[in-house]
Amino acid sequence: MERLYIPDGYKSPQSIKDTEIAIKEVKDFFERALAKALNLTRVSAPLFVRPESGLNDNLNGVERPVSFGIKEQGDAPVEIVHSLAKWKRQALKRYEFTYGEGLYTDMSAIRRDEDTDNIHSLYVDQWDWEKIIHKEERNEETLRIVVERVYLALRKTEKYMAEKYDFIDEILPEQIHFITTQELLDAYPGLSSKEREHEAAKKWGAVFLMQIGDVLSNDEPHDGRAPDYDDWHLNGDILVYYPVLDIALELSSMGIRVDEETLERQLRQRGCEERAKLPFQKALLNGELPYTIGGGIGQSRICMFFMRRAHIGEVQSSIWKPDVVEYAREQGVNLL
C-alpha cells in the first residue's frame, strides 16, 4: 500500500464509461495537433524485435525485456520493445522519408521491472515520433524550436479539454522554461534529482530539462539515458507541475539523436563499445541513417494530466496488486 497515494477528498470525477470517452477525446485531439505541428505521418510499428538487431531501447541498461521464442523459427528469441527510439530512425530511411518529414506511431511496451505507483505502470503506451533534420541543425536552437511546437500542441489539447469538461481548468503556463540539469543542480545542490525536478516544475509550471545522461559536477548523471540514441547534450524531458499529486510529471522525453562521433563517445563513456557491431549501430557509424530529432510522449500520462486523475490506472488497463485495487475501490477511485 505504500506506493499508492490518494489525495484527501479525491474521487474519480467520471464513471468508467465517461472516462473511456474522454480518453479518446484527449488522444484524438493531441495526435492530430502533434502531427500537424511537426509534419508527421502515422506508420505501423513492431511490438517485438530480434535482440541481435540492436533496435530495442536499453533504457537505463538494467531493465529486463520480456522475451519469447518463435515456434516456427526454431524457438528463435524476440523481445517486446521498451521503446522505438532506434527503430524509428531506421524506418525513416526504409520508408523513404525526406528532409523535414517525420513519422509517428502508437507504441505499446511491457516494462516488467517497473516499480509501479500512481504514475508508473507495467504497461507503457506512447506516441513515438521521429523527424529528419540536416546535420548542421544538430544544435540547441533546433531542439528548442521543436520543444516549443510540442508544448504548443499540449497547451491546445488542455484548452480543448477545459472547454469540453467543467472539472478541468487550464493550468499550463503560456511558455515553457528551458534549464539544463547542471543549472538545476547549481540552484538546488542539496536536493536529489527528483526533488530538483519538483522545485523547477512548481516554480515555472512547465520545464524542458536539458542535457540528461552525462555526468554532472557532483560526479553523477541527473538520470540514466541509453548511449546510442539521444545526444546527451541535445536532449531533455518535458516536465509539468501536477497539482493533483503535487509532483513534477514527465510528459515527454526527446532529443536530437546521436551522430557518428557522439555515438562512439557515448558508447566509450558507458563501456559498451561492443554495441558498435550491432546492425543498427553499425549502420549509423557508416553514415547510412538520416540525422534526426525524435521523442516519446506518454499517452496515458497526458490523459492522466489533462483529465486530472490521481492514478494512471484510471486511464489505462494494467495489472496492480490486489490490495491496491481494493483500496482504490474503497476510496472511490476507478482503476480500469
Automatic annotation (TrEMBL):
Gene expressing this chain: asnA
InterPro entries per record: aa-tRNA-synth_II (IPR006195), aa-tRNA-synth_II/BPL/LPL (IPR045864), AsnA (IPR004618)
Originating species: Acetivibrio ethanolgignens
Domain of life: Bacteria
SUPFAM superfamilies, alphabetized: Class II aaRS and biotin synthetases
EC number of the protein: 6.3.1.1
Record protein name field: Aspartate--ammonia ligase
Keywords: Amino-acid biosynthesis, Asparagine biosynthesis, ATP-binding, Cytoplasm, Ligase, Nucleotide-binding
A Pfam family recorded for this sequence: AsnA
UniProt cross-references to PANTHER family, sorted A to Z: ASPARTATE--AMMONIA LIGASE
Biochemical pathway: Amino-acid biosynthesis; L-asparagine biosynthesis; L-asparagine from L-aspartate (ammonia route): step 1/1
An example Gene Ontology CC term for this record: cytosol
Subcellular location: Cytoplasm
HAMAP family, per database record: AsnA
EC category name: ligase
Assigned protein family: Belongs to the class-II aminoacyl-tRNA synthetase family. AsnA subfamily.
